[in-house]
Amino acid sequence: MSTSEETPKPTFVQPKPYKVDLEAGKAYYWCACGESKTQPFCDGSHKGTGIKPKKIVVEESKTYFLCGCKYTHNELGFCDGVHRKEEGIRKYNEFLLKANSSLKQENEAALNEQSELKNKLKAAERKQKIANIVAVLSTALIAVGIAAKFAHTYSKH
Length: 157
Ligand code: FES
Known about the structure:
Elements: E1 18-22, E2 27-30, E3 54-57, E4 62-66, H1 86-156
Antiparallel strand pairs: 1-4, 2-3
Residues 31-33, 35-36, 42-46, 51, 53 line the site of FE2/S2 (inorganic) cluster (FES).
Protein backbone atom coordinates (compact mmCIF):
# COMPACT_ATOMS: atom_id res chain seq x y z
CA MET A 1 0.00 0.00 0.00
CA SER A 2 1.36 3.37 -0.91
CA THR A 3 0.88 6.46 1.19
CA SER A 4 0.38 9.88 -0.37
CA GLU A 5 2.65 11.52 2.18
CA GLU A 6 6.16 10.08 2.07
CA THR A 7 8.83 11.14 4.53
CA PRO A 8 10.83 13.91 2.89
CA LYS A 9 14.42 12.91 2.10
CA PRO A 10 17.31 15.30 2.69
CA THR A 11 19.76 16.20 -0.06
CA PHE A 12 23.10 14.46 0.34
CA VAL A 13 25.80 17.09 0.88
CA GLN A 14 29.16 15.38 1.53
CA PRO A 15 30.43 11.94 2.59
CA LYS A 16 32.05 13.21 5.80
CA PRO A 17 31.10 15.28 8.83
CA TYR A 18 31.72 18.99 9.41
CA LYS A 19 34.28 19.73 12.10
CA VAL A 20 33.04 22.81 13.96
CA ASP A 21 33.83 24.68 17.16
CA LEU A 22 30.65 25.23 19.15
CA GLU A 23 30.31 27.55 22.13
CA ALA A 24 28.59 26.39 25.29
CA GLY A 25 25.10 27.81 25.81
CA LYS A 26 24.81 29.25 22.29
CA ALA A 27 22.02 28.02 20.00
CA TYR A 28 23.00 26.61 16.60
CA TYR A 29 20.70 25.24 13.94
CA TRP A 30 22.03 22.23 12.05
CA CYS A 31 20.75 22.03 8.47
CA ALA A 32 18.83 18.76 8.17
CA CYS A 33 17.53 19.25 4.64
CA GLY A 34 20.90 19.61 2.89
CA GLU A 35 19.87 22.71 0.94
CA SER A 36 21.63 25.36 3.04
CA LYS A 37 24.47 27.33 1.42
CA THR A 38 26.03 27.84 4.84
CA GLN A 39 26.62 24.19 5.78
CA PRO A 40 26.42 22.67 8.27
CA PHE A 41 24.08 25.37 9.55
CA CYS A 42 20.57 26.32 8.44
CA ASP A 43 20.12 29.37 6.21
CA GLY A 44 16.36 29.04 5.78
CA SER A 45 16.55 27.15 2.46
CA HIS A 46 14.52 24.26 3.95
CA LYS A 47 11.27 26.14 3.24
CA GLY A 48 9.01 23.84 1.23
CA THR A 49 11.14 20.72 1.80
CA GLY A 50 9.11 19.49 4.75
CA ILE A 51 12.32 19.26 6.79
CA LYS A 52 13.25 21.53 9.67
CA PRO A 53 16.66 22.30 11.20
CA LYS A 54 17.74 20.80 14.52
CA LYS A 55 18.54 23.15 17.35
CA ILE A 56 21.82 22.39 19.08
CA VAL A 57 22.93 23.86 22.39
CA VAL A 58 26.08 22.29 23.82
CA GLU A 59 27.15 22.36 27.45
CA GLU A 60 30.86 22.38 26.68
CA SER A 61 32.74 24.67 24.25
CA LYS A 62 34.81 22.41 22.02
CA THR A 63 35.12 20.91 18.56
CA TYR A 64 32.20 18.78 17.41
CA PHE A 65 31.46 16.77 14.30
CA LEU A 66 28.15 17.59 12.67
CA CYS A 67 26.66 15.27 10.07
CA GLY A 68 27.56 16.20 6.49
CA CYS A 69 25.71 13.46 4.62
CA LYS A 70 22.40 14.42 6.30
CA TYR A 71 21.48 10.80 7.00
CA THR A 72 22.61 10.64 10.61
CA HIS A 73 20.26 8.94 13.06
CA ASN A 74 21.42 11.28 15.81
CA GLU A 75 18.48 13.46 16.83
CA LEU A 76 20.55 16.63 17.07
CA GLY A 77 22.53 16.21 13.86
CA PHE A 78 25.84 15.01 15.27
CA CYS A 79 27.75 12.57 13.07
CA ASP A 80 27.02 8.94 13.93
CA GLY A 81 29.30 7.47 11.26
CA VAL A 82 26.43 6.51 8.94
CA HIS A 83 28.37 7.99 5.98
CA ARG A 84 30.80 5.05 6.28
CA LYS A 85 28.06 2.44 6.54
CA GLU A 86 26.07 0.80 3.74
CA GLU A 87 23.19 3.29 4.02
CA GLY A 88 25.49 6.32 3.74
CA ILE A 89 27.55 4.79 0.93
CA ARG A 90 24.35 4.02 -1.01
CA LYS A 91 23.22 7.63 -0.61
CA TYR A 92 26.66 8.84 -1.72
CA ASN A 93 26.43 6.65 -4.84
CA GLU A 94 22.99 8.06 -5.63
CA PHE A 95 24.38 11.57 -5.14
CA LEU A 96 27.30 10.84 -7.51
CA LEU A 97 25.01 9.31 -10.14
CA LYS A 98 22.72 12.34 -9.98
CA ALA A 99 25.68 14.73 -10.22
CA ASN A 100 27.05 12.72 -13.15
CA SER A 101 23.73 12.80 -14.94
CA SER A 102 23.39 16.57 -14.55
CA LEU A 103 26.98 17.01 -15.80
CA LYS A 104 26.06 14.90 -18.85
CA GLN A 105 23.05 17.11 -19.52
CA GLU A 106 25.15 20.27 -19.15
CA ASN A 107 27.72 18.78 -21.54
CA GLU A 108 25.04 17.95 -24.12
CA ALA A 109 23.59 21.46 -23.83
CA ALA A 110 27.07 22.96 -24.31
CA LEU A 111 27.66 20.73 -27.37
CA ASN A 112 24.32 21.82 -28.87
CA GLU A 113 25.18 25.46 -28.26
CA GLN A 114 28.59 24.92 -29.87
CA SER A 115 26.96 23.32 -32.90
CA GLU A 116 24.52 26.25 -33.24
CA LEU A 117 27.41 28.72 -33.04
CA LYS A 118 29.28 26.77 -35.74
CA ASN A 119 26.23 26.99 -38.01
CA LYS A 120 25.92 30.72 -37.36
CA LEU A 121 29.62 31.16 -38.13
CA LYS A 122 29.23 29.25 -41.43
CA ALA A 123 26.24 31.42 -42.38
CA ALA A 124 28.21 34.57 -41.54
CA GLU A 125 31.15 33.34 -43.63
CA ARG A 126 28.82 32.70 -46.58
CA LYS A 127 27.39 36.23 -46.27
CA GLN A 128 30.93 37.64 -46.10
CA LYS A 129 31.89 35.78 -49.30
CA ILE A 130 28.83 37.17 -51.11
CA ALA A 131 29.63 40.68 -49.83
CA ASN A 132 33.21 40.29 -51.13
CA ILE A 133 31.97 39.20 -54.56
CA VAL A 134 29.53 42.14 -54.68
CA ALA A 135 32.37 44.52 -53.74
CA VAL A 136 34.63 43.12 -56.51
CA LEU A 137 31.81 43.35 -59.07
CA SER A 138 30.99 46.93 -58.00
CA THR A 139 34.64 47.92 -58.35
CA ALA A 140 34.77 46.29 -61.78
CA LEU A 141 31.59 48.10 -62.87
CA ILE A 142 32.99 51.43 -61.69
CA ALA A 143 36.23 50.73 -63.58
CA VAL A 144 34.26 49.86 -66.73
CA GLY A 145 32.22 53.06 -66.31
CA ILE A 146 35.38 55.18 -65.99
CA ALA A 147 36.96 53.45 -68.98
CA ALA A 148 33.83 54.06 -71.01
CA LYS A 149 33.87 57.73 -70.05
CA PHE A 150 37.52 58.05 -71.10
CA ALA A 151 36.84 56.26 -74.34
CA HIS A 152 33.92 58.59 -75.00
CA THR A 153 36.03 61.67 -74.19
CA TYR A 154 38.92 60.56 -76.49
CA SER A 155 36.61 59.64 -79.31
CA LYS A 156 35.41 63.31 -79.40
CA HIS A 157 38.94 64.65 -80.06
S1 FES B 1 18.42 25.10 5.33
FE1 FES B 1 18.48 22.96 5.71
S2 FES B 1 17.33 22.76 7.55
FE2 FES B 1 17.28 24.88 7.15
